[in-house]
Amino acid sequence: MRVFNAIMLTITAVCIILTAFLFEVQDTATDEELLASVIVLEQKNSKIDIEENIDIDVEENIKIDSTNNEDSAENTEKIEEDKSEKIPEFFCIHKTVDIKNVSPTCTTVGEEKVICIDCEEILYEKNLEKIPHQYVTKTIASTCTKAGETYDVCEDCGEKTNIKTLNPKSHITKEITVKNSTCTTNGEIQTRCTLCNLVFNSKIIPAKNHNWTVYSKTNATPLENGLKLYKCTNKNCTVKKEEKTAFTPVGTTNLYIPSISFNKEVVLADCNQSNTDKYDICCDLDLLKGDNPVFFGHNTRSFSQLHKIKVGDIIYFTVNGKTSVYKVTISEKATVVNGGTEIRGFSSGVDLLYNDIDNAIRFFTCYYDIFSTANRWMIIAEKI
């Protein structure tokens, strides 16, 4: 019995020493050292192993003879202990622990904590101070309609400080053409801010109206209207138009030669020097009888361009509202022969008045080269 009591006292003393040692480790050791110093207490085959090299052997079957024990009244006492019997668990040896670390932020404190998983006892605990804010400066630019600001903001938590307001900018105005005028529609110019597009005023650009120019023309004649084709020369305008033109004769007895823009009134009179001097152009309808009018005129007056008429040109002659059309077959210099009784073509040799050509009109004038032997000009145009 004394041996058993001694063993139990020894085990109790060892446990007390170990417990005190663990509490001392909690205050001074690091997390790793604390974990390494955990004591494993285990009973196996009636032997208690302690990491501090304390070994206590217990006999599987303890027998105490009554003859060796003066205090015992019996002769023999047997004490047996089962191999599987464990030492009573009256304290936790914190074999398994959990390390919980919470990092501090700029708004919350952190902590380091060691907790026994078995008994949930906090073995180590330490608070960590907040970390400083990480400020950066940001700017929101002001506009002409809204104030801006500058401020320092923490990149971690978003806290703002040192907030300063920036005054709005002034408007920058400019005249902008928002719609160009055309020949038929008005345009528009606006005065607006180039920053915010705010419109301050607007004014109308009047329509331009078409700027017409003739690009094709057919002259009117006594028999048919003429035609003028117009196009607008304003930018981006493709509008065209046409206009019919009527012939306006000069006088009731009219001679019209388009090739030289000749539109004159003629006087029906005998073709002699006196009438030519008086009327400028004389037309004798009866000189050759039939439909063969003869025209005389001064080369220094209305017939000054007669020599420019070419073979093939058209001539219109109107008498009393009736118009006849003729085509030029001879236009050349001429000379007076046989004492002035004949006017002969210098190249063709055809006599102006006396020939076989019928239904024709004849023109005669002095030629501009009065010193030439061929100082006359004659034209014959046959009716078509």
Q: Runs with pLDDT <50, length 5+?
A: 23-88
Using the alpha-carbon principal axes, give the shape. rod-shaped
Percent of residues in beta strands?
35-45%
Helical content class: 10-25%
The helix tally amounts to 3
> How many individual β-strands?
27
- Profile the largest sheet: 10 strands, mixed
Rg calc = 69 Å
| pLDDT averaged residue by residue | 80
Terminal CA distance reads 171 Å
Using the coordinates shown, work out and report the CATH topology of the largest domain: Sortase, Chain: A
CATH architectural type of the largest domain:
Beta Barrel
* CATH class category name of the largest domain: Mainly Beta
Number of domains: 5
Helix and strand run:
HHEEEEEEEEEEEEEEEEEEEEHEEEEEEE
Structural class: mainly beta
Description of the structure:
The protein is mostly beta strands. The protein has five domains: 2-95, no CATH class; 135-166, no CATH class; 173-205, no CATH class; 212-245, no CATH class; 254-383, Sortase (Sortase, Chain: A), CATH 2.40.260. It has three helices and 27 strands. Strands 18, 19, 20, 21, 22, 23, 24, 25, 26 and 27 form a ten-stranded mixed sheet that branches. Strands 1-2-3 form a three-stranded antiparallel sheet, with helices on one face. β10 (148-154) and β11 (160-166) form a beta hairpin. The longest helix has 27 residues, at 2-28.
